[in-house]
Design the sequence.
């Protein structure tokens, strides 16, 4: 188990450098001239333009640019944004907000997803099951931005139950609405996954054995059925955590959440390679770690799985 | 003003839009609007903004997000009132006999918000700092008319004193320009020309985060929370015409105007100065009695570059005129912008002093399908339009609404001229700039201009002068250049304006760009504040706003 974890962490190193190279190249290869855009289309003195190009190494060929970036990275210097701020400071400001939003969304979809999924799975074909199936299908079919704007208008403006947008410090209570919007589509998937998995395991031999042993229904459901049914759900949630941590560009935009999604979106549009590479590299690490945690959880859920 | 700059201007993406904006004092809205009287002057007003693109330094702030803050925490020699007329702020007098040598006297006893005195050196040092190449300030080209700019702005130059600026005594300095420029005074309210306290130069980076200014407001302690908000409180040391009538302004930073719109609807935000496209149809009913829709100093045009082979000589001139007459501007305004713009009748803006709505030759901007078709056929007789050639209009489509109106325009051109015209979509603004700057367009491109300061010349010289900084289409006409020069040498702004309008008559024949419409600002405000007046540049006069 320890060796397995260690090996996985070592794998992170090539993945990390590969990701920075790839992303740096992609930003480099996108057409357009970031410095020309900085002037907003107004004139710019040639000396100023040359100074800015030199400051961001944009006057260098790709390998030199990337080499300089790596050199700074080793000293934990992530570079500067076009507005002259340290990229590390910008990320440090945005990341806690995105993390909070992601955790809330994940908690929302896990709790309600598993709960509804279990009930629907146990009462297959009944009214509750059919209602949940149809509702989840509707949610999956509606794009996030529609859900977001509609909930913002209804809950935020017309009913006045919540503030339509999140204020600067992004407190927990103001993030509830964005978290619900963000988690809603995944919630539908979790419900369907749990339901399918539960109803399949209900007919498994070990469940019949457990029932025949005279165990209470509650114990059969919670300890035997649920525990075994959660493996596909955990796999899904792990991948989803990685995606949520990447910042939700659409949801953060609608609710004006100052998170990593907004940051990344703006940096891509303006061609700010330092920011894009730094953010994406962190996301890669988060993704790999989230997947590792999921793999380790398998062993906890299913004793037949062992890592050596 | 000689514009020999590499970078040329064009339509400006909303986010990066350049602003100018010292808002004026003694506003006319103030006297006519009785509802302001008796408003609560102690409450804090909230308003939308975008994250400033750079640290808050006068010569480095060139976009709206930072510009509107700078104009509140700084004041220059003059400011602009709601109509764009100049009002003295720190200047006691600005005198010139030849439009080339200016003597500027300052009011005495004025101070920055930290108590240090504002002297002639506060201006001269700040301008020298802004112009010098070694400081790499984005607005440095604004100083190019001052004598000695070419030396300090040369690449690698270590000099930072322009010979045209001389301090005479504590409250007097003189400015010598490289050539006469009749509208120089009009520029002095622009952000780039603000003074700086002597402490600013110790560490300009940290000063930019926490600037000390001399405007009607000052930045609150730790007032700039990046990507979140900028908090301003009234500056008690300010004595100018723009005295704050509220307890402060808190700018909330929005990346998405749709969410800002819902915030005003639920009264969580007081002022929104930019109704998003989704709200254009309904904002007047959503905000009955709490909205504004008025022209500001900006326009939208379509550049037809002079280097396109199909648009050369006499036939080319006819083709440009035919395209202009083939566009039904009013229909596009009605259908796509819900009537919230005004058809262009010249190359400038109706809010400017000297604007003339009926210049000789302006008929070419009126929709006339029959005349357009006839003109196009006449051009074809001289040199035929290449068979199968598509007339493309390039535009970045990351700015809201661009795609829709250009597609509509292309359809009108197709229908009325019998050629194929279409939008050439460009994904991002930075890509669009690179394409336009490369001078390798194979068709027309979307363009537009927002004034830096309220002057006719600002809409003409930088855009159509031979080799000018923002002359994207490489337009060049010696007769036009001569007229501009004559206008600049005029000894008064009025005499200059007359000549600038004469130069526009030449443009109306050549049509280096096809003027489309004048921009208008659509703003809304919450139930918590009284009427919000907007300035000549479309920026709210925040200091005039009172709470209910």
Sequence:
């Amino acid at each position: 188990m320890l060796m397995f974890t260690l090996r996985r962490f070592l794998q992170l190193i090539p993945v990390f450098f590969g990701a920075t190279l790839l992303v740096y190249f992609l930003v480099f290869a996108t057409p357009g001239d970031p410095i020309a855009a900085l002037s907003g289309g107004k004139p710019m003195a040639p000396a100023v333009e040359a100074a800015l190009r030199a400051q961001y190494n944009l006057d260098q060929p790709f390998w030199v640019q990337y080499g300089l970036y790596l050199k700074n990275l080793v000293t934990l210097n992530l570079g500067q944004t076009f507005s002259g701020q340290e990229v590390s400071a910008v990320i440090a400001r945005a990341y806690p907000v995105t993390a909070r939003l992601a955790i809330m969304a994940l908690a929302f979809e896990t709790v309600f997803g598993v709960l509804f999924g279990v009930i629907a799975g146990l009462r297959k074909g009944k009214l509750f099951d059919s209602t949940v199936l149809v509702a989840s299908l509707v949610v999956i079919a509606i794009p996030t931005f529609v859900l977001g704007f509609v909930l913002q208008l209804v809950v935020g403006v017309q009913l006045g139950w919540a503030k339509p947008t999140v204020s600067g410090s992004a407190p927990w209570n103001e993030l509830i609405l964005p978290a619900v919007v963000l988690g809603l589509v995944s919630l539908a998937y979790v419900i369907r996954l749990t339901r399918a998995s539960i109803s399949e395991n209900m007919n498994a031999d070990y469940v019949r054995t457990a029932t025949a042993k005279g165990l209470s229904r509650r114990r059969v459901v919670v300890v035997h059925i649920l525990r075994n049914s959660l493996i596909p759900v955990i796999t899904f949630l792990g991948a989803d955590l990685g995606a949520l941590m990447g910042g939700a560009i659409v949801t953060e935009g609608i609710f004006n959440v100052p998170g990593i999604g907004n940051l990344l979106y703006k940096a891509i549009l303006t061609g700010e390679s330092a920011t894009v590479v730094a953010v994406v590299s962190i996301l890669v690490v988060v993704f790999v770690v989230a997947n590792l945690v999921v793999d380790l959880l398998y062993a906890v859920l299913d004793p037949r799985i062992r890592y050596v | 003003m000689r514009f020999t700059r590499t970078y040329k201007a064009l339509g400006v993406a909303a986010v990066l839009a350049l602003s100018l904006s010292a808002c004026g004092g003694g506003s006319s809205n103030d006297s006519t609007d009785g509802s302001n009287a008796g408003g609560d002057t102690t409450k804090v007003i909230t308003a939308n903004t975008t994250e400033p693109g750079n640290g808050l330094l006068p010569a480095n702030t060139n976009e709206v997000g930072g510009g509107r803050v700078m104009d509140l925490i700084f004041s220059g020699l003059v400011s602009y009132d709601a109509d764009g007329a100049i009002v003295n702020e720190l200047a006691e007098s600005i005198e010139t006999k030849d439009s080339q040598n200016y003597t500027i006297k300052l009011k005495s006893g004025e101070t920055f918000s930290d108590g240090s005195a504002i002297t002639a050196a506060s201006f001269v040092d700040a301008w020298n700092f802004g112009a010098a190449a070694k400081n790499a300030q984005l607005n440095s080209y604004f100083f190019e008319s001052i004598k000695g700019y070419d030396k300090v702005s040369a690449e690698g130059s270590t000099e930072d004193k322009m010979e045209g600026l001389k301090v005479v005594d504590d409250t007097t300095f003189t400015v010598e320009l490289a050539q006469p420029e009749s509208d120089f005074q009009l520029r002095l309210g622009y952000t780039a020309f603000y003074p700086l306290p002597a402490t600013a130069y110790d560490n300009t980076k940290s000063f930019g985060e926490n600037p000390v200014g001399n405007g009607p407001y000052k930045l609150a302690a730790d007032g700039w929370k990046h990507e979140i908000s900028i908090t301003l409180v009234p500056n008690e040391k300010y004595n100018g015409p723009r005295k704050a009538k509220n307890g402060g302004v808190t700018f909330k930073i929005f990346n998405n105007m749709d969410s800002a719109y819902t915030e005003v609807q639920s009264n969580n935000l007081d002022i929104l100065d930019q109704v998003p496209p989704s709200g254009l149809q309904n904002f007047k009913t959503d905000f009955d009695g709490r909205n504004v829709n008025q022209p500001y100093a900006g326009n939208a045009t379509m550049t037809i570059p002079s280097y396109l082979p199909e648009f050369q000589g006499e036939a080319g001139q006819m083709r440009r005129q035919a395209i202009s007459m083939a566009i039904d501007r009013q229909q596009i305004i009605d259908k796509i912008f819900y009537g919230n713009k005004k058809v262009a009748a010249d190359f400038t803006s109706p809010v400017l002093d000297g604007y003339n709505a009926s210049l000789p030759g302006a008929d070419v901007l009126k929709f006339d399908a029959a005349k357009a078709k006839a003109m196009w056929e006449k051009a074809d007789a001289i040199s035929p339009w290449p068979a199968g050639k598509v007339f493309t209009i390039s535009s970045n489509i990351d700015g809201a609404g661009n795609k829709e109106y250009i597609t509509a325009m292309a359809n009108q051109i197709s229908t009325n001229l019998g050629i194929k015209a279409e939008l050439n979509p460009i994904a991002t603004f930075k890509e669009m700039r690179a394409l336009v700057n490369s001078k390798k367009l194979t068709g027309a491109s979307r363009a537009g201009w927002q004034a830096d300061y309220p002057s006719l010349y600002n809409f003409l010289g930088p855009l159509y002068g031979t080799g000018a900084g923002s002359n994207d289409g490489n337009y060049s006409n010696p007769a036009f250049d001569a007229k501009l020069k004559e206008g600049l040498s005029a000894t008064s702004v009025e005499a200059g304006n007359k000549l600038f309008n004469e130069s526009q008559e030449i443009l109306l024949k050549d049509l280096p760009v096809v003027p489309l419409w004048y921009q208008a600002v659509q703003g809304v405000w919450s139930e918590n504040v009284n009427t919000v007046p907007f300035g000549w540049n479309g920026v709210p006069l925040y200091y005039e706003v009172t709470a209910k």
